[in-house]
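User: Predict structure, ligand zinc ion.
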Amino acid sequence: MERIATLEREIAVLRQKLNEKEKELYDLRQDWTPFYTNVPDGADTNQPVQLSKWAIERYSRQILLSSIGANGQAKLCGARVLVVGAGGLGCPAALYLAAAGVGEIGIVDYDTVDLTNLHRQVLHGEGDQGLSKVHSAANALRRINSRVKVTPYNTQLAPHNAMDIVNKYDVLLDCSDNPPARYMLNDAAQLSRIPLVSGSALKMEGQLTVYGYRANKNPNEKDPSYVGPCYRCLFPTPPPPEAVGSCSAHGVAGPVPGVIGVLQALEAIKLIVGHTHEQLLVGRMILFDGDDMTFRTVKLRSRSLDCAACSATRTITRLVDYEVFCKAQGREKDLELSILPPENRINPKELSMLLSSDQRHLLVDVRNESEFGMCSIGGAANHPIDGFAVKSSGLIAEMVRQGHAVTFICRRGNDSQIAAQLVLDQLDPGLREHVKDLVGGLHAWSKEIDHNFPIY
Ligand SMILES: [Zn+2]
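Assistant: Predicted complex:
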């Protein structure tokens, strides 16, 4: 064990040095050998360009495609793409954009690399834990292609900073995971008139489409007035917060965001080289189902004539407060409900003492069955929060009436309060003191009482 710890420390030092050297090489490479030899302004025209020797050799396999060619490669080398989210979607998307030679890649995320990210966020490795995701991602992207300019933004994209960042780019990739971010990115893309390649993935399912496409920037389009629908054209009002799932709560199979993220990169590449809206996922959405391995493409409603973001009568002329608009928090990790009064809450130390002295104390774990199967406190009974009101609340209220004390537990101390409240509502005031919930849930239990209990 000691040898393992020593090696891990030595490797961390070497990796830090390697990152510094690669950054130095990357900085030097930014200043020499342009990707073309004859057209200083040629990156965004359809005139023939003569690519540099290194560019031809490096990108030859995609230049061979008639739909890309030398001109398409020159456009890629001159393009600027912003990837919002350095997670399950953003990692594969940014990886393929860097490999394809997209000239400038911006990557935005406020989070740090965590062990639970690694099964799907493939730019990060074990040695990157604790590092900011954008710096970890930037290191990996520079290693793949030192010719591209990678700009990490270690911040939460918010109304006060989003436009300054978005305005520097030609294409926006939504690799985020929550409704406030989706609406903000849509509005930012509409305000700056750039297309938004939107992806999402949860459990075994993924979705992909392109919002806010404008034909007037593409000389290959027959009708330059064509504009594709935006996110708000289809979803003018946000979903109720309780209907929104998340990977940390519901899980996700790693390859699912992998598939969607890679396809986001492909759509961005097609947008840059000049595919028309019929060839792009404009007004269409791909629905991927990994369980039965099917891709379905569904036609979306066309642009809404009274859309708040993209119509002639639009009301959104600047970014607003999206957490208020969606009644949800963008930073899911910080979500801490406070439903129960203090007398119905118990901290891990108090619960630990209670359990060792009172054998009749009931522990009710309200996580779902697969979470309970993964790890649980000894002696706890599983009553999943889904269906709790119908199946379990009356039963547990009856047990309290018969003299049992009950503590509800869940992962973070939110669902446990919801379940406890459902039972409290059925009890006379004199019995309510016997129902509690564990503050901070199993995460707090692991930190304060049982360090061997897995945090996931
Ligand atoms: Zn719209």
